[in-house]
UniProtKB/TrEMBL annotation:
Taxonomic lineage: Bacteria, Bacillati, Actinomycetota, Actinomycetes, Pseudonocardiales
Entry-linked SUPFAM superfamilies: Nudix
Gene3D superfamilies: Nucleoside Triphosphate Pyrophosphohydrolase
Domain of life per record: Bacteria
Residues covered by region (Disordered): 1-23
Organism for this UniProt entry: Saccharomonospora piscinae
Composition skew (Low complexity), residue ranges: 1-11
All copies of domain Nudix hydrolase, residue ranges: 21-234
Keyword rRNA-binding on entry: no
Keywords for this protein: Hydrolase, Magnesium, Manganese, Metal-binding
GO molecular function, one term: hydrolase activity, acting on acid anhydrides, in phosphorus-containing anhydrides
Cofactor(s) the record lists: Mg(2+); Mn(2+)
Keyword Lyase among UniProt keywords: no
The protein, known as: NUDIX hydrolase
Length: 266
């Protein structure tokens, strides 16, 4: 599978010592559509990154970001599949698996206001009371573990499902080892675009997001494009979450093809 890359993407052979890929976590938030004028289906939450960002500037992406060292705090409250299970799914160590799940919960809250947390019997329905904590998480003044402990909450790992593992091409100077998760929007919560990293945000059907990219109205990185195509095949968010995945690392290759650069997926 090949997709045109962005004009600024580097070409040629990978450097002799590629940059180390930083561990990161991405969440594909899904919800069922409620449009009386169109067939039922799934929508995903997408953000267009501001053009001043060092990575993926101007791209349309899912919420996510790098793992913080504090995301591995073993004191965090937890409900759902344990870190050992996530380690099996993502073929990584248990401490890293814990950090990845915590990172995706933190990033989802920071970037979209969606909080995948609660008590063991209840998921948070109204996140308004945690607005100050959200700001403190963004600034780094507060860790996820401390926030959840003080709020009497725990990570709800049962709301998440593993989806994919994408690694930035070796030619890129800034690289990420990104684990993709999917999660349904919790009942009562709202996703927003209240983050300095995005200039806009919206819920959109995967097929419509791809059509925007094909028409030049948006720019998608290969992992986003590929994931949209996969999610778009499902008629409901419940079926997305029920999909059993075998996670294998995917590292796209940037290849010169005449006067353009294409991305090859093995």
């Amino acid at each position: 599978m090949s997709r045109p890359s962005s004009p600024s993407s580097p070409s040629g052979s990978p450097p002799s010592e590629p940059a180390v890929a930083r561990d990161s976590a991405t969440v594909v938030l899904v919800r069922d559509t409620h449009d009386d004028h169109r067939p039922a289906g799934v929508e995903v939450f997408l953000q267009r990154r501001v053009r001043s960002m060092a990575f993926a500037a101007g791209m349309t992406v899912f919420p996510g970001g790098g793992v913080d060292r504090r995301d591995a705090d073993a004191s965090v409250g937890w409900a759902g599949p344990p870190p050992s299970r996530w380690a099996e799914w993502f073929s990584c160590s248990e401490p890293l698996a814990r950090a990845l799940v915590c990172a995706v919960v933190r990033e989802a809250f920071e970037e979209s206001g969606v909080l995948l947390a609660g008590t063991e019997t209840r998921v948070v329905a109204d996140t308004g009371e945690y607005a100050d904590a959200r700001a403190a998480l963004v600034s780094g003044e507060l860790s996820l573990a401390r926030f959840l402990t003080e709020a009497g909450l725990c990570v709800r790992a049962d709301l998440l499902r593993p989806w994919a593992n994408w690694i930035t091409p070796e030619q890129e100077p800034r690289r990420y080892d990104a684990r993709f998760f999917v999660a349904a929007l919790p009942e009562g919560q709202q996703a927003d675009g209240a983050t300095t990293e995005a200039e806009s945000a919206r819920w959109q059907r995967p097929g419509d997001a791809i059509a925007d990219a094909e028409a030049g109205r948006a720019t998608l990185m290969p992992p986003t494009w590929h994931t949209l195509a996969e999610i778009g095949r499902f008629p409901s968010s419940a079926e997305v979450l029920a999909c059993e995945r075998t996670i294998r690392p995917i590292t796209p290759r940037l290849v010169q093809d005449g006067d353009r650069i294409v991305v090859e997926l093995s």
